[in-house]
């Protein structure tokens, strides 16, 4: 029998008091216990990046983090990017530059790119491409993702 522990996940400014087993991943807790299904689960091995969220201002693969490790930390998911009906510049850039096709990888790319650009707004193109190459997309060929992130970076610097 596994003992559950009570934790509080603060997701997009809202507290979620939940009970989890120690081995429950943050990705599963976000989706199943807190109802934030915009965070996608792909490989469950930290390889694809679909589950990327921002924890205490840093992009994190939520399938590799236990929910208990995020207790008391600030978590941002793709649902927290828009401000009401106003899209985040990254979301708008993905729409404007055709940065998505099937959309499965998109939340992870959005969160990775936002997290990186908030920390390093003047990241070089070479470093940006290196960072983005850590997430996988099977549909787009990456060119429009890179174009989208560059467009959003310019908008976010304003």
General description of the model:
By secondary structure, this protein is α+β, with helices and mostly antiparallel strands. It has two domains: 5-80, Ubiquitin-like (UB roll), CATH 3.10.20; 89-157, Orthogonal Bundle (DNA polymerase, domain 1). The protein is built from five helices and five strands. It has a five-stranded mixed sheet with strand order 2-1-5-3-4, sandwiched between helices. α2 packs across α5 (143-157) and α3 runs parallel beside α5. It is globular and about 45 Å long.
Brief characterization of the structure:
The chain is α+β, with helices and mostly antiparallel strands and 158 residues long. The protein contains 5 helices and 5 strands, in the order E-E-H-E-E-E-H-H-H-H. The chain has 2 domains: 5-80, Beta-grasp domain (Ubiquitin-like (UB roll)); 89-157, Orthogonal Bundle (DNA polymerase, domain 1).
Relevant terms:
158 residues, alpha+beta, Ubiquitin-like (UB roll), DNA polymerase, domain 1, 2 domains, five-stranded mixed beta sheet, 5 helices, 5 strands, 34% helix, globular
């Amino acid at each position: 029998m596994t003992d559950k522990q009570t934790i509080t996940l603060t997701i997009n400014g809202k507290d979620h008091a939940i009970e989890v087993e120690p081995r429950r991943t943050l990705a599963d807790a976000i989706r199943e216990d807190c109802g934030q299904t915009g965070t996608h689960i792909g490989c469950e091995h930290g390889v694809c990046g679909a589950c990327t969220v921002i924890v205490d201002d840093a992009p994190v693969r939520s399938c590799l983090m236990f929910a208990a490790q995020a207790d008391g930390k600030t978590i941002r998911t793709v649902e927290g990017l828009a401000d009401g009906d106003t899209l985040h510049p990254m979301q708008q850039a993905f729409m404007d530059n055709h940065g998505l096709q099937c959309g499965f990888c998109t939340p992870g790319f959005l969160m990775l790119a936002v997290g990186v650009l908030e920390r390093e707004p003047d990241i070089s193109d070479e470093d940006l491409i290196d960072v983005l190459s850590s997430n996988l997309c099977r549909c787009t060929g990456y060119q429009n993702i890179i174009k989208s992130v560059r467009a959003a970076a310019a908008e976010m610097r304003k």
